[in-house]
Amino acid sequence: MTAPGNGPENGPENDPENDQAKGQEHTAASAAAARIAAISGLVFAVLFVVALVLLHRAPKLADPDATYTAFYAGGGDQLFVAIGLYLVPFAGIAFLWHMTAIRNALDTLTPAPSTMAHGLNLLAGVIFVVLLFAGTAAVGAVAFGVYFGHTPAEDPAVARGLTALGYGLVFIFAVRGAGMFALTTTTLLRAAKVLPTAAAVIAYLLAAFLLLAVTNNPVAFLVFPAWVVLVSIFLLRYAAAPRSLPHRTPDPTRPTLGGATPS
After folding, report:
1. Would residue 18 count as lying in a domain?
2. Each residue of 61-82: pLDDT tens digit?
3. Is residue 141 part of a domain?
């Protein structure tokens, strides 16, 4: 026979105070993950923009052969391009932190998110980082080899071919991965009520630009860090917002732990 007040309905798992403690831990975990996602996102945006500006010093596809020859015969700009190349992996690492922290926050906010959006979000983020690494490595390879390897300046045709390869990987493929990541993340954050309607509309427009824009102008790629900054601001806002768990009114017909029914 089960003693009064010791039934399964009165166990620790059904204790209102225990439920409240679990809810507080859940809320704290969501806020911590959102804070990490926001900070890592801002770090990524800064590193990415600086790296892009430095790599932009390399000759462009439309430049004549004389520009390529003069660039690789010099020294100063090659150093800047090499530094930009070194910064890209750190930007990618910061982005991976940003992506993982966002997914952790979403897992606590929406225990059952959209399966398709959740899966595409991970794949798009990984594709973006891999292609970003490959594309920027191709663009900066000649400058890196000439400056640090003290190798003779490459033939302009070779340098132009590597630049074309890098531009294709970044502006055709990596930017689409960034757009898909922005699109799916905006959808998930909107469903989790982290992004208000106005911010979500702006985020969707930026994601659509990344998916549909046809350009090889590096300035257009700044749309992605702008999207990351926008999302990070609202993640910080969510993490800093005070929250209280809803008050639970005791059920008057439910026995207490002592076995007595509250009057």
Report:
1. no
2. 778 888 877 777 765 577 788 8
3. yes
- Look-up: residue for tokens 């806002």? 237
Read out DSSP for 17-79?
Answer: HHHHHHHHHHHHHHHHHHHHHHHHHHHHHHHHHHHHHHHTTSPPTTS-HHHHHHHHHSSHHHH
Q: Are 140 and 84 in contact (CB under 8 A)?
A: yes
Residue 263 resides in a domain = no
Identify the CA nearest to 53 among candidates 73, 90, 83, 89.
Answer: 83
**pLDDT score for 205:** 97
**What is the distance between the alpha carbons of residues 8 and 16, in angstroms, rounded to a whole number?**
14
Any idea which residue has 């002592």 for tokens? 258
The candidate with the shortest Cα–Cα distance to 101, out of 43, 24, 25, 21, is 43
- What 8-state DSSP symbol labels residue 183? H
Element (H, E) at 135: helix 115-149
Dihedral of CA atoms 56, 148, 79, 69 in degrees, nearest 10, equals -60
Average pLDDT over residues 95-102: 95
Domain assignment present for 248:
no
Cα 143 to chain centroid, rounded: 29
- The radius of gyration of the chain from alpha carbons, rounded to an integer in Å, stands at 26
Looking up tokens 């970044």, which residue turns up? 170
Of 241, 146, 220, 150, give the one whose Cα is nearest residue 178.
Answer: 220
Give me the amino acid identity at 263: S
Total count of domains within the chain: 1
Pairwise pLDDT comparison (164 vs 255), residue with the higher score: 164
Cα dihedral 131, 132, 138, 141 sign: negative
Are 38 and 236 a contacting pair, CB within 8 Å? yes
Range(s) of the domain holding residue 138: 23-240
Q: Is the pLDDT of residue 262 over 60?
A: no
